[in-house]
Amino acid sequence: MSTMNWIAIGTITDIPQRGARCVATPQGKIAVFRTAEDRVFAIEDHCPHKGGPLSQGIVHGAAVTCPLHNWVISLETGKALGADDGAVKTIPVRVDGERLFIALEALADRAA
Amino acid sequence: MTEKLVIIGNGMAPGRMLEHLFEKAPGQFDVTIFNAEPRVNYDRIMLSPVLSGEKTFEEIVIHGDGWYVANGVTLYKGHKIVAIDRAARTVTSDHGVTESYDRLVIATGSVPFIIPVPGHDLPGVLSYRDLDDVQAMLLAAQSRAKAVVIGGGLLGLEAAAGLSMQGMDVTVLHVMPTLMERQLDPAAGYLLQKAVEERGIKVMTKANTKAIVGNGKVEGIELADGTIVPATLVVMAVGIRPNAALAKDAGLTVNRGIVVDAGMQTSDPDIFALGECAEVGGQVYGLVAPLYEMARVTAARLAGEEGTGFVHSDTPTKLKVTGIDLFSLGDFADGDDRQEIVLRDASAGVYKRLVLKDNRIIGTVLYGETADGAWFNDLKKKGTDISEMRETLIFGQAYQGGSPLDPMAAVAALPDDAEICGCNGVCKGKITGTITARRLTSLDDVRAHTKASASCGSCTGLVEKLMVLTLGDTYNPAAVQPMCSCTTLGHDEVRRLIKAKGLKAIPAVMQELEWKTSCGCAKCRPALNYYLVADWPDEYADDYQSRFINERVHANIQKDGTYSVVPRMWGGVTNSHELRAIADVVDKFDIPMVKVTGGQRIDMLGIRKEDLPAVWADLGQAGFVSGHAYAKGLRTVKTCVGSDWCRFGTQDSTGLGIRIEKFMWGSWTPAKVKMAVSGCPRNCSEATCKDVGVICVDSGFEIHFAGAAGLDIKGTEVLGQVKTEDEALEHIVALTQMYREQGRYLERIYKWAKRVGLDEIRRQIMDDGEKRRAYYERFVFSQKFAQVDPWSERVSGKDKHEFRPMASVGFAEAAE
Ligand code: SRM
Ligand SMILES: Cc1cc2nc3c(=O)[nH]c(=O)nc-3n(C[C@H](O)[C@H](O)[C@H](O)COP(=O)(O)OP(=O)(O)OC[C@H]3O[C@@H](n4cnc5c(N)ncnc54)[C@H](O)[C@@H]3O)c2cc1C
Ligand code: SF4
Ligand code: FES
């Protein structure tokens, strides 16, 4: 059986609008994004192209442009948009009032 | 034999008539024009963009002076005709010039209606009809005081928007309950009022003007209910009257306008009338489309052709206020025999209404989304039975026939006779046909040959789509490349509009210039951020989320996600104290690589992001500031050892380099700017491949610019020579400021210079001392806000979120 393990990571105001913050985990960094409309997404901080830190990119709409070579990654699906091919893992996020949680089910699986 | 043709009035209608006439019957007439306005024929429709600052008068001239010379036309500017003698077949102007005619054309247009309330003749009361009115309004706007516009119709609202963009506090008084009630139903009128008010313009409806009050000049308006609205400028835009007095005095038949038959002939067979002064079929007109139809008919008759006469057709109304989209056509009053289809989308601010009779469209009101206007107009004109598509009709053409079409396909699907340009009555087939027949490749050519998009310009997008359809990939849209796919505007247009409309934040730019995406993309956001920083140094709040990571954290990101740090070494000069501090930082933070750069300073590579503030703190202690090695801004000023040491040195090149760097560091520019100063023409600091370089010579300083040695290699051009260090600095700073104000984002100096022309730059910087000084001062002003060391700012806590993870999830938590 798979359980959802929701872990509190802070509040939405910790992240600037159209920006991102990182969460360090044993499996590497997770980038948590906040869009202009206050939607929150979490994805691996690792560009499918050459591993660029996506958390450092420019956030526009529900996408981020990688700071290294400008791939555009959808925050909703983790997929590269446009002509590029590739995807990063997305991590479920829950917003409860101001508070943010991410689900680390997969991490728990891997860690176990 | 040439006949003598005299025209009274030089507006848009006779201008168009002459174009047709010269095409049909070249040489048949010897033409003389008398115009009360002291100027050539211009696009009166576009006065509003001139008022708002979005266009200049030169840009709206239709026929320049050269056109009259080329066509042998005698134009009397500033001559008003005061009498027509039909027996003698002459006209006489107020300056006493008498000219005889074989054929006479009266095209005196309209006069604005002035409500005859007390005070209507006070200084400060204007109408809105010609360039003089616009100039008077612009002059009044300089005082930034209060303006009242009487009349909430098309003209009144355009005047109000323009005055408000010029910084005036504007109130619109409208006598009816909703704005533009002749063109809009109350729902659309309400949305329009909201949009107008959002621009900071006050709107008072049901406001009945009783008097204009003031002592010697306008001070306010008194309404019928006793309210006083203060004002220093009053613009009356309450309607127009055909200007027919002259014709009446001459004994021609005049009703509301000068009565003409379908061939535009007045009651005197040698005299024609056209334009707003003419009444045909019992109607007078106030939009250019029907006037252009009159022009076509008049030209044909003068050329001796019979052909079709004038036929009435409805013309859609559009408001030319940037950012407000409305379209109105035909008859939209309620009625028992009518049905309507309405669509509202409150969150998007969209309202659409179609009025149908016998399954045919008779009226259309579109607000907020007007792209389907042309299609509805086509259905109405053809009387198409819409019962088949009734369910989806209001959603527009894209929804007909299954899945939504993209806008290109929607244009492709228009029939050949669909009207594209309402002003000039040009249909799709004419445009595509002309493009092919004449092998046209630019928008300007298409305008010149078909007239489509040549008047109010609101159909430009459609015309461009047709060009793409016809020419395929060979069409390079308008030579103006849009900034990115979020907009159709090019960089220059956006820069101009930011200034003209006083836009001071990225959301304001996106809203006003109708960005197609909600918050831009990684291409346009950094560009807009730069333009706003450069244009409003004191008012704009830099948007860090719109900067590339390097500029956001003031270091260069590396392939592994670590950063490099390059402190400034002014002019490439250092000392043991600085070197020791660098050595200590390298040891303390275990920095894996230290390298001397090509820009005469030291690069520390492989620093973890979390360590950046601490690294800066230590470097700051030793007196270092950021070297901006990451910035679209001033990078390094390379120097050589110069006269202090070198046996060939002619001037203190090191000292000048340091002075320039200390003066200009921290400034943002469209792309990076690298400079160098060499002490003699041996040029050891490689000044002749920099964005700006100085070669010192015995007699002074030779200033170079527009070099490159990166992706392109290009030797510099000489700007000019000056005698003193002070002058060298002033010239370099002014040149940089000119580039800051005109450059497109990411366009380096050599590309900008190629675009605007080396001579133009030399003229403004070398020859025009006043301009140079003004550029210099603007740079100095902006440095007040820019010359802040970003590193010490971050050390003291700014943006600390950037450098720390938000949370750390331990192994135990993750595994739980
Ligand atoms: C460090 C340095 C190489 C070195 O080890 O010496 C360097 C390093 C980089 N250069 Fe450079 N350039 C360096 C001198 C130059 C020079 C020589 C010079 O300035 O005298 C040139 C050619 C001169 C010119 O610019 O015309 C140069 C032409 C470029 C270009 C091509 C620019 C162009 O418009 O053609 C780029 C790419 C760009 O900017 O888009 C570039 C971009 C870069 C970037 C920023 C690449 C990047 O985007 O990450 C490199 C950053 C590495 C880092 O983290 O420091 N670098 N680069 C030099 C830093 C100088 C300094 O002290 O600031
Ligand atoms: C601000 C503004 C915005 C407009 N916007 C639009 C729009 O978006 N769409 C649209 O279709 N229409 C618009 N119009 C209307 C359009 O401009 C007019 O319908 C059109 O210009 C009228 O052309 P015309 O040649 O009949 O007269 P005019 O262009 O008015 O020309 C008449 C000329 O005759 C001269 N004249 C008058 N009497 C004499 C005399 N006795 N002797 C010598 N010269 C004389 C006048 O000085 C004037 O220059 C707008 C008008 C204004 C003022
Ligand atoms: S030349 Fe410049 S951009 Fe290219 S690898 Fe070297 S430092 Fe990087
Ligand atoms: S690593 Fe992200 S685009 Fe290359």
Automatic annotation (TrEMBL), chain B:
Residues 558-621 form the Nitrite/Sulfite reductase ferredoxin-like domain. [4Fe-4S] cluster binds at C640, C646, C680, C684. Keywords: 2Fe-2S, 4Fe-4S, FAD, Flavoprotein, Heme, Iron, Iron-sulfur, Metal-binding, Nitrate assimilation, Oxidoreductase. Binds 1 [4Fe-4S] cluster per subunit. Residues 420-467, 483-532 form the BFD-like [2Fe-2S]-binding domain. Siroheme binds at C684. Its cofactor is [2Fe-2S] cluster; FAD; [4Fe-4S] cluster; siroheme. One of its GO terms (biological process) is nitrate assimilation. GO terms for molecular function: 2 iron, 2 sulfur cluster binding; 4 iron, 4 sulfur cluster binding; flavin adenine dinucleotide binding; heme binding; metal ion binding; NADP binding; nitrite reductase activity. Residues 317-382 form the NADH-rubredoxin oxidoreductase C-terminal domain. Residues 4-282 form the FAD/NAD(P)-binding domain. Residues 631-768 form the Nitrite/sulphite reductase 4Fe-4S domain. Pathway: Nitrogen metabolism; nitrate reduction (assimilation). Gene3D superfamilies: 3.30.390.30, BFD-like [2Fe-2S]-binding domain, FAD/NAD(P)-binding domain, Sulfite Reductase Hemoprotein, domain 1, Sulfite Reductase Hemoprotein,Domain 2. It comes from the Bacteria. The keyword Metal-binding applies. The keyword Heme applies. InterPro entries: BFD-like_2Fe2S-bd_dom, BFD-like_2Fe2S-bd_dom_sf, FAD/NAD-bd_sf, FAD/NAD-binding_dom, FAD/NAD-linked_Rdtase_dimer_sf, NasD-like, NiRdtase/SiRdtase_haem-b_fer, Nit/Sulf_reduc_fer-like_dom_sf. Belongs to the nitrite and sulfite reductase 4Fe-4S domain family. NCBIfam families: nitri_red_nirB. This is NAD(P)/FAD-dependent oxidoreductase.
